[in-house]
Specification:
- This protein has 343 residues and is mostly helical.
- It folds into two domains: 7-197 and 310-340, Rossmann fold, CATH 3.40.50.620; 215-306, Tyrosyl-Transfer RNA Synthetase.
- The protein is built from 14 helices and five strands.
- The strands form two sheets. A three-stranded parallel beta sheet has the order 1-2-3.
- Helix 3 (55-72) packs across helix 13, helix 7 crosses helix 8 (153-169) and helix 10 (225-233) runs antiparallel to helix 13 (282-308).
- It is globular, with a radius of gyration of 21 Å.
- The structure holds tryptophan (TRP).
- Residues 9-11, 13, 44, 47, 134, 137-138, 146, 148, 152 line the site of tryptophan.
- Tryptophan binds at residues 9-11, 13, 44, 47, 134, 137-138, 146, 148, 152.
């Protein structure tokens, strides 16, 4: 079994609606990578239950994320689209990694601290072990590249630490099995740039998020044209005109965010956007941004609604995807079993 050279793995949690931040920050990149890489895109339902989920809503959200992948342009016939819980080896490998990773490593994870908040004693054990499961997701396929937002950088570093420790802890059986230079790859993150970090439309200092109470703070991928236009029209700005250069966006988070969204949707740059709109009012800019957003997001939402209307079809896609995922994962996990000494 040779080491893959260009295999991409990434995952999105099924919890609540998908918004423009998910699209520009992650899924758009997933779509592009299909041309250059073998891609495996997962709906991480095991990760979702690290905080309590209503079972019916979990099932629905799982199908919705799969629908979003496909509506955004991921081809489930050419690449692999599936949900994590259908491939049991994710949880099995995560257990082995729980025994490789150190408490001290996990204690440093900032996402756990953020999510657990003040009430750490009451957080689930799964929430603490979240990053070892994420490492298992990636390494179960010996993925070489993982596109993620910059908030996941620390988890990717942990994934490399786990791969490295596994490779040294089991160096002898790994060499004996003919994997001279280590069994697991040191996976590279493909971190989305700052232009793809989409902030709330109500507060440029906070990330666009499904947990924000105000719906006006985000554009959901299933919003209709009128709603998209209204949310952009009402987006928070400041009283000044748009600057002509990106340096002028400093200290103006709302302006920065809207220009970034425009650039990402137009496959352009903030510089190019400001070359056109610098010196002008937000009103004129927002008018064009609303049109652009409706043009780009509208068709995705329409396709998502079509797919969401047929849950059985989505289940069939996920089932088939899981079968293909298992074809890749099973032989790798078999090797792991031998390396670790499971008979
Ligand atoms: N933790 C990721 C997030 O919240 C989701 C995720 C789970 C993931 N497993 C993964 C991302 C594996 C990339 C690779 O965004």
């Amino acid at each position: 079994m040779s080491m893959p050279q260009n295999r991409v793995f990434s995952g999105v949690q099924p919890s609540g609606s998908l918004h423009l931040g998910n699209y520009l920050g992650a899924i758009k990149r997933f779509v592009e990578l299909q041309n250059s890489h073998e891609c495996i895109y997962c709906v991480v339902d095991l990760h979702a239950i690290t905080v309590w989920q209503d079972p019916q809503e979990l099932a629905e959200s799982t199908r919705h994320v799969a629908a979003a992948y496909i509506a955004c342009g991921i081809d489930p016939d050419k690449h692999v689209v599936f949900n994590q819980s259908r491939v049991g080896e994710h949880a099995e490998l995560a257990w082995i990694f729980n025994c490789v990773a150190r408490m001290g490593w996990l204690n440093r994870m900032t996402q756990f601290k953020d999510k657990a908040g003040k009430n750490r004693e009451n957080a689930s054990v799964g929430l603490f072990a979240y990053p070892t499961l994420m490492a298992a997701d990636i390494l179960l396929y010996r993925a070489t590249h993982v596109p993620v937002g910059d908030d996941q950088k620390q988890h990717l570093e942990l994934c490399r630490d786990i791969a490295q420790k596994f490779n040294t802890d089991f160096a002898e059986p790994i060499a004996a099995a003919g994997h001279g230079d280590g069994f697991f790859p040191l996976t590279e993150p493909l971190i989305a740039g700052p232009a793809t970090r989409v902030m709330s439309l109500r507060d440029g200092a906070r990330k666009m998020s499904k947990s924000e109470p105000s719906e006006m703070s985000r554009i959901d991928l299933t919003d209709d044209a009128e709603t998209i236009a209204k949310k952009i029209r009402k987006a928070k700005t400041d009283p000044d005109a748009l600057p002509s250069e990106t340096a002028g966006l400093e200290g103006r988070p709302e302006a920065d965010n809207l220009v970034g969204i425009f650039a990402a949707l137009a496959d352009s740059t903030a510089d190019a956007v400001l070359a056109t709109y610098g010196g002008g009012t937000f009103q004129a800019f927002k008018q064009d941004l609303a049109e652009l957003a409706v043009e780009k997001v509208g068709p995705i939402g329409a396709e998502m609604s079509r797919l969401n209307a047929d849950p059985a079809e989505m289940d069939a896609v996920l089932r088939k995807g899981a079968e293909r995922a298992r074809v890749i994962a099973a032989p790798i996990y078999d090797e792991v079993r031998k390396i670790v000494g499971f008979v």
